[in-house]
Amino acid sequence: MVGAESFLGEQQLSPNTADQPSALSNTGCEAVTRRTMDNRPVRRRRTGVVRHLLLAVAFLACSSQLLVVNANSWWSLGLTPIQQPEMYIIGAQPLCSQLSGLSQGQRKLCQLYQDHMVYIGEGAKTGIKECQYQFRQRRWNCSTVDNTSVFGRVMQIGSRETAFTYAISAAGVVNAISRACREGELSTCGCSRAARPRDLPRDWLWGGCGDNVHYGYRFAREFVDAREREKNYPRGSTEHTRTLMNLQNNEAGRQAVYNLANVACKCHGVSGSCSLKTCWLQLADFRRVGEFLKEKYDSAAAMRIGRKGKLELVDKRFNTPTPEDLVYIDPSPDYCLRNETTGSLGTQGRLCNKTSEGMDGCELMCCGRGYDQFKTYKHERCHCKFHWCCYVKCKRCTTLVDQFVCK
């Protein structure tokens, strides 16, 4: 597996808090001093109680702003189109300052690797779409609610669903960056330099232009984990526990792409004789990655913080999670009803399958509230025929079907 050395031999990025303005000034909460008409400050004496009350009000106001800021995520890059760096003319606002949701460490990486940002956005978009596909028949269907937090407040809960979202998003970045390297879109990487597999027959050639999953893994680790690693929460705190959970699930997503990559070969020879084969490293189809992580979601381990400040199993009877496994720290809501506090959208208005006994069935999807039935027209291709040479001609059929919607 990939070693623990830092990306491209560079020093690990860490936030330089000494050079930062205070949190109050960052959020627009600045101390205001009363002044006279000639702009001289006036000193006013306040009692200790009044002063403490004013400080508490200011703290609460600024805390609410900080919550809004922290709600942003790099996932928003998947919902906002990113222009190529060369499209920014001299004197225009730099690319990295226009991207929302980046942490300090991620912004530094953006400045160093601006040509990577388009593909990070593509990776985030791929992860979001795959999440929605895998959960399309579940009460929680991975819906995006806005362009900043993307998934909304439901991500504040350290649930199984949050674990899957972190994993599939990290996997999407590995996938996109690895492909971009192979296609020559990035200045700092190219085709894969993976070693020749030992079990590859000697007469098969190795060295076709493969997906650079090694580079994609390392860059995704630096970029995606930067937000978590630059936090400095007290060891054993709730926030520290959530950070460890996020890091574990990010790694599980990256491992899925890395380990599912396989050898692909192409035959060469007269009339398809396959007298010669050329082989290279190729990423697995991302749908397979999504299905693999969905299985990990189903078997995710419930964790808690231990005495040594590390995650440990709630139930010791289960096996200790490996880097490939998903973990969670909070139970999942039922997602049945709309709840602004937890971010649950509820299942009212969702389509369900009357004959299914699974999660997409009306009984489970509607949480026992019942469902409404209506008829709708369904259009599909039918009576397709193959014509020589070489096309398929179909008719368009319309049928009236029953559909069911949760109350």
Automatic annotation (TrEMBL):
GO BP annotations listed: angiogenesis; canonical Wnt signaling pathway; cartilage morphogenesis; cell fate commitment; chondrocyte differentiation; convergent extension involved in axis elongation; dorsal convergence; embryonic body morphogenesis
Keywords (A to Z) from UniProt: Developmental protein, Disulfide bond, Extracellular matrix, Glycoprotein, Lipoprotein, Secreted, Wnt signaling pathway
Entry's localization field: Secreted, Extracellular space, Extracellular matrix
GO annotation, cellular component aspect: extracellular space
InterPro entries: Wnt (IPR005817), Wnt_C (IPR043158), Wnt_CS (IPR018161)
Biased amino acid composition, Polar residues: 9-28
GO molecular function per UniProt: cytokine activity; frizzled binding
Region Disordered, annotated ranges: 1-31
Record function comment: Ligand for members of the frizzled family of seven transmembrane receptors.
Recorded family membership: Belongs to the Wnt family.
PANTHER family noted in UniProt: PROTEIN WNT-5B (PTHR12027:SF87), WNT RELATED (PTHR12027)
Name of the molecule in the record: Protein Wnt
Organism (species): Mastacembelus armatus (zig-zag eel)
